[in-house]
Amino acid sequence: MSVIATGLTWNVSEDLRQLFEFHFMTNAFRAGTIVAVVAAVIGWFMVLRRQTFVGHTLSMVAFPGAAGAALIGVAAAWGYFGFCLAAAVVIAAIPRTRGHSFSEESAVVGTIQAFALACGFLFVTLYHGLLEGVNSLLFGSFLGITDSQVATLFWVGVGALGVLAVIGRPLLFASIDPDVAAARGVPVRFLSILFLVVLGLAVAEASQITGVLLVFAILVVPPAAAQAITVRPFLSLLLSVAVALLVTWLGLTLSYFYDQPVGFYITSLAFGAYLLAHAGRWVTQRVRNVRSATS
Amino acid sequence: MTAALSPIAENGLVHSEDVTEARRPAAVSARDAAVSLAGRTIWSDVTFDVQPGEFVAVLGPNGSGKSTLLKALLGLVGVSSGEVLVAGAVPRHGNADIGYLPQRHGFDSSARVRGIDVVRLGLDGDRWGIPLPAGVGRRSRLAAQRVAELIGLVEAAPYSHRPIGSLSGGEQQRVLIAQALARRPSLLLLDEPLDSLDVANQGAIAALLARISRSEGVTVMIVAHDVNPILRYLDRVIYLARGRAATGAPSDVITTETLSRLYGAPVEVLHTADGRPVVVGQGEATTYHPDLHAGHEPHLHG
Questions:
Q1: Which of A53, A257, B21, B286 could staple B279 via S-S, CB 3.0–4.6 A?
Q2: What's this model's pTM, rounded to 2 decimal places?
Q3: ipTM above 0.85?
Q4: Containing structural domain, residue A83
């Protein structure tokens, strides 16, 4: 985008003044912050549960949701949240054998994903919209986020995290060891449904910033990087949030000062964080091996 | 089944040394119990008593209903006749006094949680809310203390901070035993805990379970395929085959006569130089698989 900005001056206060000179940019940061926190926390559980494919599908469903909303002339948020929630419920309804096997789930989930993309394409064609609009649906945009959109993101995010705060511990148990958890009276199936609904909300939120194709940049990459760095659950959850916030804020800043789209920056930064995390893990393992070999 | 508490059978009392002990109900008892699944009788006329603190193995060929017996004790499967009692009461689902380890195939090698987290989940994993990091608040400190105690009990300290997926089968099994013991159950049920372990580890885990049953006063019942590595640690065996059961001290049950009668096929019990029996059947140690090629047994395992 070619806004007024002239590029980073490396004068921090001057850069910050420029960055927040316009209200739309303040809103972009508010929205980005909310989305980063929600996506990083919920994505952490998703990565732990190995349900990234489901997350991906939910984001594909966000595409016809948003395009459909434009077609019938309602706010895009209705499309994002409505379609993602509906898809989460449909996926939750897929009967599953006990245990950790998501294999037969993935065939059905893949089918839903293909159908969702096709519908999105149809809606866009029917809408005769500008190509620009499709681009921002797919790859994200932070222009023109209104105060009321920020408020919606905030309250939905609070709701999703609130649910997670209540079910966090048994969900962790059910994610790591569903059989033992079930034997201990943890409602594994109910938790799995509830988690899909919460995941649907997180995906709907994230797609509004990163676009549906780049949701993974803040939903998967920060938690995956955090889990590579540490196995301490609480610490890795915090790290996940920190990485998501960092890449979102930096991505928004770079996109504001330079011309490339925000989705590109957030995704590339997240990718860099992921590579760094794995490189760091590789190095520490090497060091540990050498140490244990010499002692 | 709606049976009221039945008086303890006379022969259930013989084992105990003193009078006060003798007043306690058997940890587990079965009276002429039968279980049917999908209209098929899995076993019937099963009668036994397990005294508190005993280490018991449930043995038998594939499909003989060993796992079903554990499920009956957990209240997941009802008996079709007779009765099964746990600590003198009809089994109910979600009994916190039972620690249970289902049959499993180990953690994924990429599972990124530590052994101590897995043990901690055994303590309060079913409670709503979010786990706070260790050391925040009194309850959390107590929990951390208990977890450390459990880790020590199963001798898992050297690797309890490593990701569970990177541990060996035997190490994972120790962590899981600690998890099952977290809430001080009086009965520990383990379904094939020695499966997929090498012989040395099978012996080590069996020794650990025997030690825990003594030191913690926990009754331990394990389902096992191969009796030989664990035989010397057992107080009692329950042998299931062809819908019937034989039970008693290992030296009484593991005899050529009893096992051949139970299997309905020649089984030979030999004795090693130090007097330990070794079960040999069908040219292969104990692993007699009547149903391996004859069809599948959908309800019994898995």
A1: B286
A2: 0.83
A3: no
A4: 12-294
B104, B120, B130: best to mutate for the A interface, most A CBs within 10 A: B130
- From B289's Cα to the closest Cα of chain A, the distance in A is 25
Q: Angle at Cα B295 formed by Cα B291 and Cα B296, nearest 5°?
A: 85
Domain boundaries, chain B: 1-97+187-249, 105-184
Which residues of chain B have a Cβ shorter than 8 Å from any chain A Cβ?
Answer: 74, 93-94, 100-102, 104, 107-108, 111-114, 117-118, 121-122, 124-133, 161-164, 176, 179-180
pLDDT of residue B4: 41
Q: Look up the CATH number of the domain holding residue A153.
A: 1.10.3470.10
Structure tokens at A20: 């927040």
* Partner B contacted by A288 (CB < 8 A): no
Q: What's the confidence (pLDDT) of residue B48?
A: 92
Look at residues B59, B15, B36 and name the one whose alpha carbon lies nearest to residue B277: B59
Total number of domains in chain A: 1
pLDDT tens digit string along A265-275? Answer: 999 999 999 99
Residue A44 lies in a domain: yes
Mean pLDDT, residues B159-168 taken together: 91
Q: Which residue of B has its CA nearest to A235?
A: B133
Distances (CA, A) of B84 to A29, B28, B29, B49: 63, 7, 6, 10
**For A27-56, what is each residue's pLDDT tens digit?**
999 999 999 999 999 999 999 998 888 898
Q: First CA to last CA across chain B, in angstroms?
A: 25
Topology classification of domain B1-97+187-249: Rossmann fold (3.40.50)
